[in-house]
Design brief:
219 residues; alpha/beta; 5-stranded parallel beta sheet; 12% strand
Length: 219
């Protein structure tokens, strides 16, 4: 029998120390192998397209694209790739957003040494992984409602508006945002105007404060 190929993993977290620790955990397992790592959500999407890993492990708070935004893009471009969210946020809203974004698991950094390897193997098998304390019925109930087409709690802004909001809050100009998202400057300005109107805000400073409260950037 031939040797089984290890699961190829892309690791994205904006803290080098976290990446080093996670890599040590994963590379210590014969069936897991980190083939690429980055500190940036947009770069994670680019590397996923280049490396075509079996599994992406994404932090939520990263520059340019959050882990959730990157997960949405990866799910659209590479639906066969598995995604895990690795985060310090024990937060039900983020958990459901992760599922909607296409992630098959949600692992807390505080217990990564205990749970991450198991979560990777579950994801590769096509099984969901929940951090301890969350209940499997929570996922089943959620997925059943989606399958029935029941209304989910709506978000105020669209995915694209969220991407623009994050980049505005990080100080990018309209031209830079247009280049990053492959859209026109005029479209960026329209999204910015829509954001101000929808959120009832007045300027870039208030947009930045909102982005911090929403967890899109770190203060």
């Amino acid at each position: 029998m031939g040797e089984v190929r290890p699961t190829r993993i892309l690791l994205a977290d904006d803290h080098a120390l976290v990446r080093r620790g996670v890599r040590l955990i994963l590379d210590n397992e014969p069936d897991l192998c980190v083939v690429a790592e980055t500190a940036d959500g947009a770069e994670a999407v680019a590397q996923a397209r280049t490396e075509r890993p079996d599994l992406a492990i994404l932090d939520i708070a990263m520059p340019r694209l959050t882990g959730l935004q990157a997960a949405r893009e990866m799910s659209r471009l590479m639906p066969e790739m598995r995604i895990l969210i690795l985060t310090m946020y024990d937060n039900e809203q983020y958990f459901f957003e992760a599922l909607k974004a296409g992630a098959s698991g949600y692992v807390l950094k505080s217990v990564a040494d205990r749970d991450l390897v198991e979560a990777c193997r579950a994801a590769v098998r096509g099984e969901p992984f929940l951090y301890p304390g969350a209940v499997n019925a929570l996922i089943r109930n959620y997925l059943e409602r989606v399958a029935r087409g029941d209304d989910q709690p709506g978000r105020t802004i669209t995915d694209r508006e969220e991407e623009v909001l994050k980049l505005v809050a990080e100080g990018y100009s309209s031209k830079q945002i247009a280049d990053l998202l492959f859209i026109s400057v005029k479209t960026v300005e329209r999204h910015r105007a829509n954001l101000l109107q929808k959120l009832g805000l007045r300027d870039r400073l208030e947009l930045t404060r909102y982005a911090i409260r929403a967890g899109l950037i770190e203060p």
